[in-house]
Known about the structure:
The chain is of the alpha/beta class. It has a single domain (about 5-255), classed as TIM Barrel, CATH 3.20.20.150. It is about 45% helix and about 15% strand. The chain is built from 10 helices and 8 strands. The protein has helices spanning about 20-35, 55-60, 75-80, 90-105, 125-145, 165-175, 190-195, 200-205, 230-240, 255-275, and strands spanning about 5-10, 40-45, 65-70, 110-115, 150-155, 180-185, 210-215, 245. The structure holds manganese (II) ion (MN). Manganese (II) ion binds near residues 154, 187, 213 and 248.
Amino acid sequence: MSCLKIALVISTSDAAFDSLAFKGDLVKGLQMAKRIGYDAVEIAVRDPKKVDVDEIELIAKDLQMDVAAVGTGQAFLAEGLNLIDPDENIQKRTIERLKDHIDFASHFSSKVIIGFIRGNRKHRSVQEVSNLFVEHMRCLADYALPRKVTLVIEPLNRYEIDFLNTLGQTFEVVQMIDRTNVGILADTFHMNIEEARIEESLRFVASKLFHFHVADSNRWAPGTGHYDFESTFEALHKIGYEGYISVECLPMPNGPQEAAKIAYTTVKSFLQIFERD
Ligand SMILES: [Mn+2]
């Protein structure tokens, strides 16, 4: 394992609705991540047209921080946008919004996360929604390719969504999409709930594993629960994973700064075990 880079998901609060507050949160988050030692950040953007990407680019450059990935879930949670909605009009609006996210991400050659934004199955067959999802994802992947943007689909646990809960299900859909710039984002919190054998699942999707989220079993900072990070990082090492390790946890314990510090120290210490050989 060459030196893997560590990223921090920085929260910009609901304030993504208000570009001024968004910017304030973003600057504070970037500075905090930098101070602790992180190489990059991940940011959630509800509507890229409402934020000044050139300014964000300047701020990140100034701090020498990469933007590893762009989150899109707020567009689902706040506006209901999703790719498989029974209403075709919503599907179209979601594609347009995700193209904006891709344009935004192109400034940083970063990844765009397809999590909540894919939508819920809502009693339709897996095959029906898969076909719809595959069609829209191909269109987005072809738009993203010349812009050097990669799309990563994140399996989420059953209590949050009813379509694509496991790495295996997601791998199957990624194979159907069949585009070089579409892969998988695995998250330890979700895997801990959904995967029968985490290391085996990681090996199974190795060729398409492009991004990685870490939180402990309680979704707090890595190091504060009982998730077996050593075993997972060993599996990542063995499959030759070269993407980011991105910390996405609740601001626990003791607030965002303390959580970010504990997470960084924990991740770094596990990575060092495998970077030695
Ligand atoms: Mn995640």
